Amino acid sequence: MGCIEEVTEILDLLYKHGWDERNGGNLSYILTEEEVKSVCDPTKVIKEFKYDDFDLSLAVGRYFIITGTGKYFKNCLKDPRNNLGIMKVSDAHTLQLLWGYEDGGRPTSEAPTHLQCHIERLKVDPSHRLVIHCHTTNIICMTHILPLDSDKFTEILWKMQTESIVVFPEGVAVLPWILCGGTEIGRQTAAKMSEYRSVIWAQHGIFCTGRSLDEVFGLIETIEKAAEIYMKICDKKIVQSISNENLIEIAEAFKIDYRHGIID
Hints:
- The protein is α+β, with helices and mostly antiparallel strands.
- It has eleven helices and nine strands.
- It has two domains: 1-109, L-fuculose-1-phosphate Aldolase (3-Layer(aba) Sandwich); 131-264, L-fuculose-1-phosphate Aldolase, CATH 3.40.225.
- It is 40% helix and 18% strand.
- The protein starts with a helix and ends in an 11-residue tail after the last helix.
């Protein structure tokens, strides 16, 4: 399966899970030059997009698939050429379109945030490739009823199910509501990516990162399922739950280096 087919399959699954209604959500995925060559000529530039407010110098020379602004995830599988673009970062402020956006579209408004997140994740994980932003329902619900504290969210999500601390041992970061598509939310999200693979945007959704499509989709699934469990039981009388000692036992059994200072 080629890179376009792999990406559109995941986009379709995200839509079917209900996390990317209408044109909500966006994705960016690092491609190798060989993957780009399997789709298009990497030397043929169709169009350029300027981002003067962002410094993309640490991503210069890299290729990305990026979802288009205003595009619906539900349409990507059947019409990738209009809904996706293959881009190259040609200099610190420029993205070059090599393939896609055939109806005259452009990259998602969150593209600078994505690229800044890629830059930060590559500093800590050279195998990093993917950023997905989506509107996970129960995570959004949690941001309406809890203090927007990263450690508090992490502790709750870890304790909802046994697999949570295994899948996201570093926890989750939480940001307050910030206007989307701008410089500030991109700066704050990228800053969190030096320590976390997942950043929650209050009343908006989540940014998740990783090495592969399967890894990131699984990360989103696991965090959102933990949030769903919490929202279903948060107003109930809890008779028993996973304790701090249980979480430490899980971490020791699976040899997990979890974020300390939350449960110990």
